[in-house]
Records
---
Amino acid sequence: MMTKVRYFSPAVVGVVLVFLPMLFGRAGTLQILATGLIFASLALTYNLLLGFTGLLSFGHALFFGTSVYATGIALTRWGWSLTSAALLAIIFTTVLGVITGAIALRVGGVPFAMVTLALAQGGFVLAGKNPGGVTNGADGFGLAVDRLPDFFVGVVNTKNLYWLSLALLVITYFVVSLATTSSPGRVWQGLRDNELRVEVLGLRPYTFKLISFTLAAFLSSLAGIVFTMVQGSITQHVLSTEVTLTLLVMVVLGGVGSHWGAALGGFVYTVANEQLTRLANSSAFEDLPTIIRGPLTQPVFLLGSLFVLVVLFAPGGLAGAVKQWELKRR
Amino acid sequence: MSDIILLTATGLGLAGLYFLVASGLSLIYGLMGVLNFAHGAFLTVGGYAAYVVMQKLLERDWGINSALVVGLLASMVAGALIAWFTEAALIRRLYARHIDQVLVTVGLGLAIGAAIAGYAGQDARFLLTPPWMDNVLVIGDARIPYDRFVLIAVGLMLFILLQVIMQKTRLGLIIRAGVENRAMVSALGVDVRIAFTAVFVIGGAAAGLAGSLFGVYSRQVSPAMGASVLIFAFIVVVIGGMGSLAGTAVASIVVGLIQQFTNYYATGIGDLAVVLLLALVLLTRPQGLLGKAVA
């Protein structure tokens, strides 16, 4: 019975996601859903590091954000076509992944976390300084939408952007699944579980970690391109540590080391954050005393507290809980 | 010449601030292997504790100087309390699960920051400071505001205090031994958990004090203040060598000075210069300036 569910549910989810624009026609809703799909993809790339290679990176936003800026600058400032801008974003981000990975992976564990954090902060600061007048500092800039193909422009075409985001998620899911079952993927999981053992087998952990890190950077660049098109604007926030921390929370809530868990975590977190923000600004909390209302109007407080509880009491996240439930039923 | 003196004083003041935050981080990491992401939130809590206490006291017609002193004490108490709670309620449950310990502090840091924003609002609050802080001391032809000296003095005092605790007391002995080899200390029948709580409380008090002093220095407190200092404190800890108090002190000074000087001679490049320095140190000495060679 379980195997039936296993093969049946992805098909159902896929069909529902493809036809979702027929149910939610509003452009605003579709944009939120599309953003959810993009963050699901990003969570998958982060999980590649945390869940499959055992690398706790605090600098993942650097790759996503760099891609967003590269796409935005090439389209808006230099008037490039979408194809050339996307290519630039992919190549630049991936090369950056190799360089920063080569530096950060010289240390492991917690120092690695701190170094990635610092390197990403470098990117954040650089974007804020407005080098050459291309980033417009902390204010950011609007995307030159007329550089995009017509079928991605305008409110009526939001559904096309939604499907583009869905395609991104499918491609990312496919690539990470393939990568983690390949032979380097096996080595990554070996590194996660016991690095010394991999070294004893005569393999260089450094090389394999760098491959994983670079692949994650490459896949994040794809998410960055789609995100730029969906949002239509570029802000410094995409490079902030907050983005990385959010990805971490998404992956842990969904389930570290589970592809579907991470993707679901990314999607649900994004949509929940959006809905909670709307709820906080509505009249729902008005009657509550200030001492309770204060934190409740902050989605990050609720999601952060939930995150702490999950780490303490359900370390496997949602995917872990489902797995336990499956085992019990057998 | 006057520029150089002013930049040096400001850089050293910044170094004092970094040391307040980074020393706790470094000790906690050295002893327990925990990267405390909530440390920035401790700082924010300290800053707001000082703000609230000073507001109340000033309403009751206290003098600004005495209100400030009580505010600084309140920030230390608040920082120590929240750090103690973190250790006792969260970190201790996750013994030997290092990644999960980091994750819990990440979540806690996010939640505390958001809770403060929920109560006090996203915007920065203006912090009233004694007028004498705006006075300047004239050295040569450089005019240096007094608040720089306050930061330098506090940083220096903490360094001396920590050195005394570490070198002269039994607690310091246990902490030093624990950093060296925790399993051995436990095996000898010493309860290391007391040292765990102690470093958290000391580190939290220092971070809380850093919060109120940073508030005094920038004349305001905001929910995001902790996060901005935390990143530089991390850099200081890595450059100095984790778990090494002297290394943290040296790195604080190096980072503070480099940031000030590069910012002055090439506008706005200071933060990047610090990140580059970090990359350079990692490439040549991955264990940090004064860290042990074993990673």
---
Amino acid sequence: MIVIPSITLEISVVVIGIFLLMAEAFFPSADKRHIGWTAVLGLGFVFVISFLVADFSGLRENVAFYVMDSLGMFFKRFMLLATALTIILAMDYAPVYAKYVPSTSPGAGVGEFFVLPIFACAGLMWMVSAADFVMIFVALELVTITFYILVASMRRNIGSLEAGVKYLILGALSTGFLVYGITWLFGLTGHTSLAGIQKVVPNVVAPFQPGLFFGLGLVLVALGFKIAAAPFQFWVPDVYQGAPTPVTAYLSVASKAAGFVVLLRVVETFFFAPRLDPVLASKIVTALAILAGLTLIYGNLAALPQNNLKRLLAYSSIAHAGYLLVALASLSSPTAEPAIAFYLGGYLLMTFLAFFVMVQVANVAGRDEIADFAGLGRRAPALAFGMLVAMLSLAGLPFTVGFYGKFLIFVSAWQSSQFVLVGIGAVTVACGFYYYLKVVMAMYWQPAPDEAPPIPVAPFTKFVIFALVAAIFVFGVWPEPILAALR
Amino acid sequence: MSPLLGLILIPIVGAAFAIVGPNPRKTAIFAAALNFLGAIALFGMCKPEEGFQFFSTFPLLPELGISLTLGADGLSVAMLLLSTAVTLAAVCVARSPQANANWFYGSLLFISAGAIGAFASVDVFLFYMFHELALIPTFLLIGIWGSGDRRAAAWKITVYLAFGSFVLLVGLIGLYLSMPEGSRSFNLLDMQKYAQPTAAVYLLLFFGFGILVSLFPFHTWAPQAYASAPAPAAMLHAGVLKKFGLYGILRLVTPIFPVEVTAPFNTLLLVLLAGNILYVGLATISQRKLDLMLGYSSVMHMGYIFLGILAWNQIGLTGAALTMVAHGLSVAALFALSGELRERTGTLEFSELGGLAKAMPSFGLLFGFAAMASVGLPGFANFAGELLIFFGAFKAGAPVGEGFNNFQIATVIAVWGVVISAVYMLRAYRRIFMGPLNDRWKSLAEIATLPRLCVVGLLVLLLIAGFFPQLLINYIAPALRP
């Protein structure tokens, strides 16, 4: 077997991105979709290569800023898949996008739309392997800056511009928190690498421990913005609604997942430090539990009255961040880490499925209201079934991947005695059934409006929707393959 | 391969064919009939003294001890027989809706598959998952093809049951984690052997299952949902699916929890079940519509079964299980008849009906039989079951000097419940079938052959089990030995 150093993956993604950007500039082809297809093929190629990568388990001692473990590898593939799906979705969305982008000929301005996610992908892949605060910062900025552009890229659409400005201001604010937190941690420990901090943390004497907690708290706030945890969630609904739909999907899946991996690595650094003061450990857990409880309650309650599907999915994305935080607050349980990874894996499948169906319906309807789904069960049974599966999985119905994720999370929560969070979870799960089934209700209970136009679906999109539905059911019954990849 | 897998797959495959195929009604009836025959064969093959049999297993998540393990003992086989019989009756009496008949029959078969899967699972995790399979078909059936305030009813039942299921799931997690490390698994038999749960888990499980069975005061979803649901959906839900919670208690609560853990809560739970019998019973009397009255009466009867379970002795538990089967059959017959009546008259208000026995004598006779079965007239299985429950409950509890202990007081209340149910059933019968016949109803058609056969079949099963209860007890009792 050929053995390839793992850093090759990120480098090849960047190379693909630069190559396509050049191609976009110098070969003005009439159909920009060729660029999209090339990007998908390239990312698929890197995905295949990732199975040939050397196991760099010994790397942690030598290179302290880049860690290669099964978690990192799982999420590198996760990011590649999410990016490829985003680009495929972007091709479906291109007609809408082109309307709002100034260009000389129709459809000419959409090229960057297919290329920019590739750079974000490289950043995301670095993020999940980052084991040093400097590396975390650089990777995070690469991702965030790409997203600033992507969110605001529909230049003639007022909603997209508004979203871009909001995202920029709050993103900059969170970066400020992150850097400030890093300086505190560096000042107290003398290290920026997570491994170095972990060694020094138990030696920090009592008078300086509040400082340590303060620094960590600032980092938590900064990452809280990225993963959309309450009370740092207020940018989410507007940005998600205003951004081009594929970007919204990408933001809600990939950006959140990378944020969680970083959060996991940072929290584990402190939590699993040998001879850690138990008071500090319980403070960290309490902080995370409060974040989790607030996020669960806010996300689920605010989702209840939504009538716009994109906004509903934005609040649901906050709600899912709440469930993931429950697992993070239960870190003392051995199932917590696999639970987070599994939940995010399932979240990718069901969120993209929902967005894929939504884009097809919205392309015809011209907006993203739930009311536009009325009668979809008869108008387009296959699309409606895809949406049904996505909603049921998001709600956490058994035999779908969403159920196993919630199950694993609540096993960890019970095991580490987070009973209050389990209690909150019981109420929020019931809320979830209400707002996800609102979409199902529109599709199956309500009649379609008269002379509703047919909904055309590209053949490859049909295949993607089918594959996502199948994956949701297969992993919903048989989760072993995903969990095996994490070991 | 276990025959149980076939029993689960037939309705699922049938549902798929019903949804995409040309003639959903025929497909559904064929699948349901095949399944019923399969269950009868299984009933013949089962040797109840030997515990669980017909095993088949496939590991799903070995790390946590989750596997697709199927198996059945006498109690499960009895429940499977009930499920398939009610399914067959339900799809036969169903009337194809104008639009989307394929989804209608597909949903019915899905509910059936969920119930059958739950009763045939030895793995507790799968047991739970199969039950949830029925949640969405119910939502669609009530929301699309229901009557009255169907939207509110569909929302209420779905959100309520989702909440109850989650409470139950948390209880199951607690039960699982109470097993010592190394022996943890979701296999029912391992759980019964190793689990050492606390009182908190007991309450979570009892209330989780209790919400699904409409234990007072968590019963408010049931009457409205059953009243609004199309007749076959109400038959399946009230007749079969609701028994899932009781079955779960018989499997996961009574064999596992020692009396020291459960005894402190007996008085509380007895008060709640007395609420089921007295409060809901009186609410049933005050109903003015047949469908709501049947909904309330089905909630009320759960009180007896809870009483038998709380008695925690062989007689009470056997009576509870027998009543589960009997109630499932009788309530299915009643909902089938009330659905037929709604089709004919368009209303179920007592004040608008009357004297219908003159127009449709056979219909009146069948309704009379079903109503008497539900009241617990000797000769029907309901009588045998309720009698055992009363005996078991009166024996239970600690003796207290001269007076009655809490169980005996609850039993006295429950016996009064029989009077209450006689009052509302006889009143309903009188107001619908006796008295002067309204001119509007002179030309009502008599019950058609197929629905008539279905109801007669359900009543015959009740009579067989009523005259020879030992037939069923032989199957049920070995599974419940404390």
